Structure formats: C-alpha cells, structure tokens
Amino acid sequence: xxxxxxxxxxxxxxxxxxxxxxxxxxxxxxxxxxxxxxxxxxxxxxxxxxxxxxxxxxxxxxxxxxxxxxxxxxxxxxxxxxxxxxxxxxxxxxxxxxxxxxxxxxxxxxxxxxxxxxxxxxxxxxxxxxxxxxxxxxxxxxxxxxxxxxxxxxxxxxxxxxxxxxxxxxxxxxxxxxxxxxxxxxxxxxxxxxxxxxxxxxxxxxxxxxxxxxxxxxxxxxxxxxxxxxxxxxx
Length: 235
What we know:
Elements: H1 5-34, E1 46-48, H2 55-79, H3 84-108, E2 112-114, E3 118-123, E4 127-132, E5 136-145, E6 152-157, E7 160-165, E8 170-181, E9 184-185, E10 188-189, E11 193-198, H4 203-210, E12 225-226, E13 229-230, E14 233-234
Parallel strand pairs: 7-11
Antiparallel strand pairs: 1-2, 2-3, 3-4, 5-8, 5-14, 6-7, 8-11, 9-10, 12-13
Helix pairs in contact: 1-3, 2-3
C-alpha cells in the first residue's frame, strides 16, 4: 500500500509556510504604509497603481468591519456567559479589520514600475516580475473582464500561452513578448509564456511612460484605433 501521508504533510507544510509569509508580509506592509515613507524608486522609475478597481470593495468591507466589531462585542457580552468569549471575538474582529487594511497597504506600496530598462509587474508582494524592454515586442492597452476571480490565470489562445495577472477579475495592458518566457510565481516557475496581461489604473500613462525608454519607439504598429483600445505601442 502506498503511503500518502508524506505528500499530504509536505503539502500542508507548504501551505502553512505560505500562510505565515503572507501574514508577516501583511503586517510589514501595514507598518510601512502607516509611516508614510515614499516608495523606494530608482532614477527614471515611475509607479503605476492598480487599486482603483478593488478600492471601493475593500473600503466597504473595512467600513462594515468597523461597524461589526462593537455590535458583535455587545451581542457576545449579553448572550454568551463565558467571559473570555468576548475577548476572543473582539480580538478576531480587530485582527480581521487590520488584515484588510494591511491588504490595502500591501497593494499600495507594491505598484507596477516603468523604468529606463524595463517593466516591473507586481500584484501585492507575492508577485514581482521583471521584464526588460529587450524582451518586449509591444505594449497594448485593452480592457478585459475575466470569468474567474483568481489573480493568476494561465490560458491558451491557439498555440500561444497567456499569463493573466488580474485585479478584480480585470486586465488592462497586454505585454507581448519577443520569445516565450517563464516567470517566477508564488506556486513556482511557470511554463514559458508568449504574453503577459496585467491590470493598471492608468494604462494610457503606463504606455506613455514606456515610450521614454532608450529602447522605445514612438511609432505604432497599426495606425488609428480599434474597438479594443489604442493601437499597439512597439518597443
């Protein structure tokens, strides 16, 4: 009989480690954000956020948590005779509130960055992908809504592999690669991708900023606009 306990334990251990790292990162992000220090950017770097599509939802959840904490505290105090239950529920409520604020902070202090030498694509602190301009064939603005809410999605379109790094089930910038490229993801190294799609609040600004790179070119591959957005911006 095959012993399946070792793979199960290994999987559980990996999940626990990832959860611990995520928890520590959340608290660190909250600390950095509350200190209001400027983002650590290099010369010529320009940040581009991606919070716009999820900020209202996070704001609603944070507001509801603020209201729920005293309500649940009142209910538990008068209904549950066990006194420690009040402090347990109160602690969980405060932790949940700080966790959501930490998630907001995590997304705020880890924006995409357009630099002189390449594009840094990030989603929270868990995804940090560097793409030099020499590996980019073109940038294209195109808004897409994805059926799944997962932030990392890999899809096949014909014989092409496409990596979606979505926020709020949306992407707004397509990065066409000159050659298939593998990326480091939280789950491990991906298979080679032909295209990467990301979400940015200001895709037009991101494309304009990329034009100022030494390898940039202000010409377009196709003239005019399409129903999907502006024409490709080749590099």
